[in-house]
Each structure stands twice: as structure tokens, then as C-alpha cells.
Amino acid sequence: MMMTKLTALIVLVGLLNACDFETTTNTTNSVEYANDKGEKTRYEIVETGDAATVTREHLGQIESYDINGLEMACRDGKPEECIELGTAYEYSAKIFKAQPVIVQDDAEAGGPTPADRARSAIENAVEAFEQGCAGNVAEACYRLGDMYFDGNDVDQDLIRAAGFYQESCHAGHATGCYNLGVLRLKGGIVSQDSVEAVALFQRSCDGGFADSCNNLGSLHLSGEGVGQDDTKAAEFYRLACDGGNAMGCYNLGGLHHEGTAVVKDAVIAAGLYQQACNGGFAGGCNSLGYLHLNGEGVGQDDAKAAELYLLACNGGDSNGCYNLGLLHERGAGVSEDLAKAKVFYQKACDAGDADGCSQVQALQN
Prior knowledge:
- By secondary structure, the protein is α+β, with helices and mostly antiparallel strands.
- Helix content is 61%, strand content 9%.
- β3 (40-48) and β4 (51-58) form a beta hairpin.
């Protein structure tokens, strides 16, 4: 049996925060972004006199925001409308930031540049979210936390970010509790407190946020911040997996593979690894490849193992790269090709895998 490698158990999910898409096309009043899956989101602003309407179209769904009406509602003490207003201003800023440095009509009139308008829109968004947060609207506090954590549109302030995550959590925002839990677990920005992190993840998991359920499973498995309890770990991993968290499926698969606190069953493990792999967690692809290579819970199939190791490697799992290098070195399920083996060993090495580095060195001698 070849000594291929399983991805390590106990995988924690890190901090969640907003990310920008890449700009693809823009005009003077609209912009289109695309993510790494090719999904497009289009933003448009229509200004008539003092009135302005912003729309967002994504996957056929259209949102429309009447800025003037929302400003009046927010000023009149309707904090839920302040969220909508802040969102409209954020979308406006995306459009202005994508415009040319100076729109000729504005330049000739001595008016604000697109950059000026983008800054103004962000300032208005912050003000609207602050009003919403003051009105105990959890999403507004959370959005402020993300803005100050990212530091893309405002000066980064991690302490303020943590404070707004805490406010959002107190107001019942499950993702805010999760983010604050991650910060508490890591320490640095706020004081490190694993016990408090467990409490925050519990609140978030109870609120239906599956990433927190996964983290609770890992903390119970390791005994960090809470009593070590394999059975509770398995329960939380199940909650996470059922909630759509791929890491939870992977971790639960690992427990079934090892027979820790649950029945030892490679068939169940294979199904869970498949769920994890399908959900985009590369470690699941690698571990499923291991089962195919060794015929555990699935039919023995070197070619299928190689296919899964490639998925894992491309997804950033260094063990998948190492394992595929080993298959190419031995000619199992793929062509025997030392040059390709070295390429994959090097990828593993570059990702910090010491065994991959050793294999690169061995093939050079």
C-alpha cells in the first residue's frame, strides 16, 4: 500500500468578511462585476434632478433603492430603512469608483469628480449604518464591523470592527457572533479568550450559522475552551454538515473513518468526504481519493484517486499535491512521469509540506 496522506482532522473556519468582485465593464452610470465563478452583478444609478435610484441585478434578481425616499425614512426614525439607505450608498460608491477619473461634464462645470462622489457615498453609507445600529438593527452594526475590518472604503480600525461585531451579536446577528468568536479565539485585536469564543460560537450556531457549529465541534474535539468531548464534537459536526458547511461534513467523515465517538464506517466516511468535496473543501477531495486508492468504503480505483487528488491540489490542499506526485512517480492511475511527479511535489513543498520538499530533493539526486 502506498503511503499517501489524509488531510488532518479538526478544521476550523476563519473570519468571514465582505470581498470585492473584479470589474468587467463600466459606463458613466453603471458597472458590472464578476466573481471567480463568472457570476455577474450589475449596479446602475439613475439621477434625475435631485432624485436618484440605484439598482443591483444579480442572477436575475433585481433590487431597487429610492435614495431620497430612504433618506426621509431614515431621518424619521425608521432604523430598518437606514440599512437600505446605507446599502444604496455602498452600491453608488461602486459605480462612482469604476468611472473614469473625471467625467468631462463634471470637469467643465467644476463639479465633483467620481472619486469625490465615491468618498461622499461611503461617508453617507457609514452615517446611515450608524443610525441603523443605534436603532438596534443588528445587520447595520455587522455591516459597520465589516467596513472597519476590511478597511477598503474607510480607514481600517480593527478595534472598532470588533466593537461593531459585538453590538451586532448582542442584537442577535449570528454571523456577528461568529466573527467576534474567531477574533476571541485568535486574540490580538481583542483579548484571547477561548471560553468566550465557545460561548459566541454557541450563540451563533443556535442562530443557524453552520460555520460556528463546525468550530464548536473542533473545539470540543480538542478540548480548547470547553471540556474535551468527542461525542459533542460529532453532534456539532453533524449540525454543521446538515447546515451546508463543507468542513463539518469533512470533519464528521474523519470521525466515521477513525471510529471516534461514532460507528467506524468507511462507507459513511466516503459519503461525507464526497459532500465536503462537492461543497468546495479540498481536504474532502483528498481524503476521498485516499479511500479510492485503498478501496475503503468505495471500489478500489487508482484513476479515480488521481482525479480526486488533482481536485484537492487545485483547491489548495498540499496533501493532494503530494499524493498526486506519488501516483505519477509510481505510475498508479496515471502515467509514470517523474517530471510531473516533481511538479506536484514542488507544489506541495511550496505550500509548506516538508515531505513534498524531500521528494523534490530525492528526484533531483
